[in-house]
Design a protein that fits this description.
There is one protein chain. Helix content is 37%, strand content 30%. The chain is of the alpha/beta class and 296 residues long. The chain has 2 domains: 89 residues, Alpha-Beta Plaits (2-Layer Sandwich); 197 residues, Vaccinia Virus protein VP39 (Rossmann fold). A 7-stranded mixed β-sheet has the order 10-9-8-11-12-14-13, with helices on both faces. Strands 2-3-1-4 form a 4-stranded antiparallel β-sheet. About 2% of the residues have low confidence.
Length: 296
């Protein structure tokens, strides 16, 4: 049996949450088209570890430049680079994957399966080399807004755009007992999302496709959509405002996240210009999640 391929890791420790969030935002933008998994965790001493796992060897100089712009030259020089076996990376990720409650939903790893209350909809998501998975603050914000929406509405055509691990698509499929289209630009994420859908017994309900934006014919086939979930990044969200509006049903609801609170105004403006009205703005751990409605 061939050994598991090594992944490449970059890590830096920052003094406070504000700097860590600023760095995470800068790196998510800089690494948008790179196969990389980004995580940020608070240490017991109050400092923050920011770690990036790369499928291929990273551009170290470019990464240091990005860190220098966001957190200063001292932090850029403090970055450590090493390699780690893929199975070790998964094990390390699981140590940080604690259950995330959000309304009726609980996102958890298999090691915490016994901790999920019987009256909750559990979504089991295992750590893996999936890219574009998002942060707990954004995932929780989307799930809280989804929970709110489904108390008053029963959308028939649902899209999870930029699905990552598939968590939002799985949540919608479980709560609605209905079909969901999920898409991602990243091939590893598509594979992981499909695996997670099967793991959660929603493989027959969640269809996962690889697509950039709204370019695939499946968007026309499955639309127009009554509900769209998009937990990605601020810049892509702004760029997708026009194409998304063209694929919405009248009075459709849209949940957006993956943006820092400081970026919310610009994203809201982009969607207002396309006829969407903001209904709610959740702020969790410095991240924003938005609920909007299209024109009637």
């Amino acid at each position: 049996m061939n050994p598991a391929p090594a992944t490449h890791r970059a890590r830096v420790t920052l003094a406070d949450a504000t700097t860590a969030k600023r760095l995470v935002d800068a790196l998510t933008e800089a690494l948008f088209e790179v196969e990389a998994a980004l995580s940020a965790f608070e240490r017991p001493d109050g400092r923050w570890d920011v770690t990036v796992d790369f499928a291929d060897a990273p551009n170290e100089a470019g990464l240091r430049d990005s860190v220098a712009r966001a957190a200063g030259e001292t932090m850029a020089q403090a970055i450590s680079f090493d390699t780690v076996e893929a199975r070790d990376w998964v094990k390390a990720s699981l140590e940080h994957l604690v259950p995330v409650p959000a309304g009726r939903f609980v996102v958890f790893g298999g090691h915490d399966r016994a901790k999920v209350p019987g009256n909750k909809l559990g979504i089991e998501i295992e750590a893996a080399l999936a890219f574009g998975t998002g942060h707990h603050g954004t995932t929780r914000g989307c799930l809280l807004l989804l929970d709110q929406v489904l108390k008053a509405h029963h959308p028939q055509r649902v899209l999870d755009l930029g699905t990552g691990t598939g968590v939002l698509a799985i949540a919608a499929a479980k709560a609605l007992h209905g079909r969901v289209l999920a898409s991602d630009i990243d091939a590893p994420s598509v594979r992981v999302a499909r695996d997670n859908a099967r793991l959660n017994e929603t493989g027959h309900l969640v269809r996962v496709i690889r697509a950039s934006g709204f370019s695939a014919p499946e968007f026309v086939e499955h639309g127009p959509f009554d509900l769209v979930l998009a937990n990605i990044l601020a810049n892509p969200l702004r760029q997708l405002a026009g194409p998304m509006a063209q694929h919405l049903a009248p009075s459709a609801l849209v949940i957006l996240s993956g943006l820092l609170t400081s970026q919310a105004t610009a994203v809201i403006a982009a969607y207002r210009a396309r006829g969407l009205t903001p209904l709610r703005h959740l702020k969790i751990e410095g991240w924003s999640s938005l609920l909007l409605r299209s024109a009637k």
